Each structure stands twice: as structure tokens, then as C-alpha cells.
Amino acid sequence: MKWTDDRGGNVEDRRGGGGSGGAIVGGGLGTLIIAAIIFFLGGDPSSILSSGSMSSPQTQTEQRELSANDKKIGEMVDMMGKWNILTWDQVFKENGMTYTPPKIILFTETTQSGCGTAQSAMGPFYCPADQSVYMDMSFFNELQQRFGAQVTEFTIAYVLAHEVGHHVQTLLGTTQKVDALRRSGRYSETEMNRVSVATELQADFYAGVWAKKTDSREHILEPGDIESAIEAAQAVGDDNIQKRSQGYVNQESFTHGSSAQRKEWFMKGYTTGDIRQGDTFNQLLK
Questions:
Q1: 123 in Cβ contact with 39 (< 8 Å)
Q2: Domain for residue 3, yes or no?
Q3: Residue 42 to residue 39: CA distance in whole angstroms
Q4: Dihedral of alpha carbons 82, 36, 175, 48, sign
Q5: Mean pLDDT of 234-244
């Protein structure tokens, strides 16, 4: 992936500032739920963050100076943040809308979010309550070591673009509609899982649209970059995670889509570059 001089200025770096009160995950079902959230690259985690499966003793970590590598990572994320701003501003203007970028927050171990206490164990997530993307970069070590994905700089770009895709859903009202369905109580868990899959695959589609339009403008892609994004998407497919964690696949419990679906929708976004082609709900909920 080629770097540019773009910087967005919408990154808040909380690394090295010490912990802000952590939550400890208990055993049993709570652990399984959190483990799912960790690797699904999910959307709104507020129901998990506030659940009774977690206790919240206050902890404090020591402050530390950011290393040269830490600072380089911060610059890279800031650059990617700017790419997202430029691309989505363009897309929204083309469709007669105004884009407002999310804040991107880098943290280590724990921090506070509008959805509750964020933990590094959760992986990257988007919080619609404060319209912010939270990223602890240690997630990518886990993605590589536990799930075998080859992590590149563009892998990080894809993950960030997926989370920004959830922000796009919030700006377009999709997040609010899905939340209303969930709160209505009229739908079974299996039905809501299907809605969740459509939501997540749409975020993958938006990440593909972002990759296409950003490369057309900035010429950032190098050989192997798209493949690394696809590999990451497939690594966190529901079927792959279930096979690794429980030895079998239960499609009714899918919440983010299979490895094949995640690849399909990312590539559809990348191939078309057209946000109007991303109606996963109509396609998957017939």
C-alpha cells in the first residue's frame, strides 16, 4: 500500500495515557459472547458492553511514551482516516447528501466509549452513540496469530473502512432501523441474526466501494493489497470462526456472514464502486 501526505486530523490517540477503568470478562456464556464480538468486526457493541456478564473493577495502567513505531501507526491511521473522509464526502455529494466523518480513537487495553467501556479484547468497533471508531491495534496480532490472516497495512485499511461503513449506515439511518427492529421484540433471534448478517455484509460492501474510489483517486493499491483484505474478511467469517471455536457450523447463529459472503460483498463493492448496489437487506432477507 502506498502512503500519501493526507492526514485527516480526526484521530484521537489515547495510547500511552493509562487505562481508564477496565472490565473483566467472566467465564461461561459471557466469555463466548465476548469472544464472538472480538473477531466479528462488529457494529454496535453497546448491548455487550453493558451486559451483566462483565464485572467492572477499576484498574489503572502506567503511562508510557509512544515509540517511534507507535507514532508511525498513528500517522498511518490518520492518513487512512483522511482517505475515508475524501471518499465518503465525494460519494455523499454525488447523491445529494452531506457527509460528517466519525472520530477515530486509538487506545490500549481499555478506554471509555459512548457505548460503555471498550476493551482491547473486543477488537475494532464502531459506536453509534458517539459516532466514533475504536481501534486497539493489538487486534491485528490476534487476527494473524489465531486466525492465520496475513496482516498488511491494507488489512488495517480494510478493517477501518468496514467500521467507517457502519458509520455510513448510521448517517443513512440504517443503524437506527435495525435497532428499532431489535427493540420491537417482534422478531426471533434467528430472524434478527439474518438482519445482523445483512448489516455486516453491507459494511463489507461499503469497504469495497471505499477501496475502489480511494484507489481511483490516490492510486494507493499495490499487488496483493486486495487479496489481503479478502483474506482478513474470510478469516472472520462466521463459518470459519465456528469451525475453529466449536468444531461445527450452525448457520442459524451467523451474525456477520460466511467467509464466502464476506468476500462476495466486499468484491461487489470494489468491482462496482457504486453505493446503490449495496442493498444486502433486499438480497438476503427475501
A1: yes
A2: no
A3: 8
A4: negative
A5: 81
Place of cell 473486543: 122
The reply to whether 4 falls in a domain is no
* pTM exceeding 0.90: no
Owning domain of residue 105: 11-285
Whether residue 239 is predicted with pLDDT greater than 60 in this model: the reply is yes
Q: What percent of the chain has pLDDT over 70?
A: 84
Pairing of strands 132-135, 103-106: parallel
Nearest to 161, CA basis, from 87, 68, 247: 87
Residue of 195, 194, 197, 208 lying closest to 257 (CA atoms) = 197
Q: H-type helices in the chain, by residue range?
A: 29-40, 46-49, 68-94, 139-147, 153-172, 174-184, 189-218, 225-235, 238-246, 259-272, 280-284
Nearest to 212 by CA among 83, 94, 101: 83
Structural domain count, the chain: 1
Mean pLDDT (whole number) for 197-207: 96
Taken in order 127, 133, 138, 141, the sign of the CA dihedral is: positive
Q: Is 6 helix (H, G, I), strand (E, B) or coil?
A: coil
Q: What integer pLDDT is reported at residue 50 of this predicted model? A: 44
Is residue 221 within 8 A of residue 1, CB to CB? The reply is yes
Nearest-angstrom CA–CA distance, 171 and 177: 12
In a domain, 29, yes or no: yes
Residue 20 lies in a domain: yes
pLDDT tens per residue, range 122-143: 889 999 999 999 999 888 888 8
